[in-house]
Amino acid sequence: MLYHRLDGMREQAADRLTEELRATGGTLQARSQRDGAVRMYADQVEQYSAVENGLCFGRLDADDDARRYIGRIGIFDTSGDYDPLLMDWRAPAARPFYLATAANPQGVRRRRHLRTRQRKVTGLNDEVLDLATASPTAHEELTGEASLLAALTAGRTGRMRDIVETIQAEQDRIIRADLPGVMVVQGGPGTGKTAVALHRAAYLLYTHRRELSTRGVLLVGPNATFLRYISQVLPALAETGVLLRTPGDLFPGVSARRTESAEAAALKGRALMTEVLAVAVQDRQWVPDEPLEIDVEREVIRLEPATIRAARDRARRSGRPHNLARAIFDIELVHALAGQVAERIGADPLGGDNLLSEADIAEIRRELREEPGVRAALDQLWPVLTPQRLLADLYASTDRIATATPMLIEVERALLHREPGGWTPADVPLLDEAAELLGEDERTAAAAGTGSGRSSGSTPRACWRSPVAHARSTWRTRRTAARSSASPTSSTPTGCSTGRRRRTG
Asked: Are residues 28 and 126 located together in one domain of the fold?
């Protein structure tokens, strides 16, 4: 009956998965919901297939003659009152299967262990917990050693098996411990530490499904061989959504397979490397000793070191990560450059106020941001960095290493120096720390898709009036007014500028 119900559940999930995969079109919300349904039904099909072997492995006979079958997942009778046909081993009501003893039977009269192969029962043994009702002629035992010994003497397959049928009381207390905090399981080789940890992961996913499903569960193993060895345990416990990774695969997009000396790896694991990375990031926020000259449409404008330093300090005071603080740095310097340009082209020859309006200056700022020379200068002074670029540039330059590691001796600095070409497992935590220090700049992705500025072949805007043309027009009007008492003649240009203006004095 259990397998008949399992087959029905699997067939129903497969049919719904096929139906969702065949669906097309719809709104964005509908497509998102369809993607979620596809993942859910695919997980169900995988889960129902994974628990096929050993679906039911125990039975509890209660003092009130009620019987509860214990298995890998919960199965209910949907044709009646939704009575449980099979109880998930992680459910609170199933805990007496692991904890009940003759001294503390917890309302259980008999515990039965079932051994199966595929869908066939190959053996069973009963443990009598109510000694008053034990039959001297029945094949019953007072302890659970038979099932445990059977598990210990079972043939090995090269893959770790789950211990769900033979969890001991001490192991059960660890597996079902509360979620908050850090749990450390210690023991000698072969004492079941890994098995208990895997079963605890399965239990937590069952008990705290809503919370952990949104955050995810990551299982880290020392190497790929170990992960292959334990890879079938969680699926057999009805959990197929856990991510298995080695330390070298923990950073997205990086597969760390490069080797290095034990001394270099130990140095990278020291806490002071967080300070090294912080200094390395600040070192990329450059202030030159001499003024920086920028060519802007045949004109040269200068950025003074004091101006750059003030912009850098303003960006740092924001407390934002490096890449996100770049926007503040850009604003400060573009405003300074726009002020220089405005003074040049908007100065009144008669000594009056600047001829450019706030709207004109805003337009100058916008165009300066798109100037290749300005963009190159900003990238040089405060580059947008990826963790990979930051670390690769640091390792490749003895000067950068020396700047970032004043607390290290020369021998230790030499351990960090290397040429680019792959990552080691010890680099992965440093890449992760660098990602926190840098932040993710969404503008980088946007710029990659939109290009680097206005194209010369773009559609002209309707009657755009250059600030330079406007300044010259206003200047001519004022000059005419100063030379005569007549009303100024309007000199509004009749054409429209559709290209970049030429800034002249």
From this structure: no
User: How many CA within 13 A on the CB side of residue 353?
Assistant: 3
Tell which wins on pLDDT, 80 or 230. 230
Cα separations (Å) of 9 from 48, 205, 207, 378? 8, 21, 22, 60
Domain presence at residue 397: yes
Structure tokens at 450: 């939109």
Q: Which residues contact 389 (CB under 8 A, 6 or more apart)?
A: none
Residue in the block written with tokens 């165009």: 367
**Taking the model in full, what pTM does it have?**
0.68
* Residue 127, number of CB atoms within 10 A of its CB: 20
* Percentage of residues of the chain with pLDDT beyond 70: 80
Residue 347 lies in a domain: no
Nearest partner of 160 among 227, 242, 205, judged by Cα = 227
DSSP E strands, 129-198? 140-141
Residue indicated by tokens 């046909």: 85
Q: What are the residues whose beta carbons fall under 8 Å from the beta carbon of 261, sequence distance 6 or more?
A: 415
- Predicted confidence at residue 470, as pLDDT, reads 43
Tokens of 58: 């125990």
State which residues form the domain around 402.
262-281+386-442
Q: Is 498 left (phi over 0), alpha (psi -120 to 50) or beta?
A: alpha
CA 360 to chain centre: 44
> 272 - beta bridge partners?
none
**Alpha-carbon torsion, ordered 419, 424, 430, 431, to 10 deg:** 80
Per DSSP, what are the bridge partners of residue 7? none
Cα 256 to Cα 259: distance, rounded to the nearest angstrom: 9
Question: In angstroms, rounded to a whole number, what is the distance separating the alpha carbons of residues 160 and 154?
Answer: 12
Helix (H) or strand (E) segment spanning residue 293:
strand 292-296
Q: By three-state DSSP, how is residue 185 classified?
A: coil
| Residue 178, domain member (yes or no) | yes
414 CB-near residues (< 8 Å, 6+ apart): none
What integer is the mean pLDDT of 288-307?
A: 88
- In the numeric block, which tokens belong to residue 195? 């098995």
Single out the residue of 305, 333, 289, 337 nearest to residue 325, CA to CA: 333
Q: Do 75 and 167 fall within a single domain? A: yes
Rounded (10°) angle between helices 427-438 and 273-283: 50
Asked if the structure places residue 194 within a domain, the reply is yes
Amino acid at 497: S
Task: Give tens-digit pLDDT for 346-360.
Answer: 666 666 676 777 888
Amino acid identity at 274: T
Q: Give the CA radius of gyration of the chain.
A: 36
Same domain, 126 and 223: yes
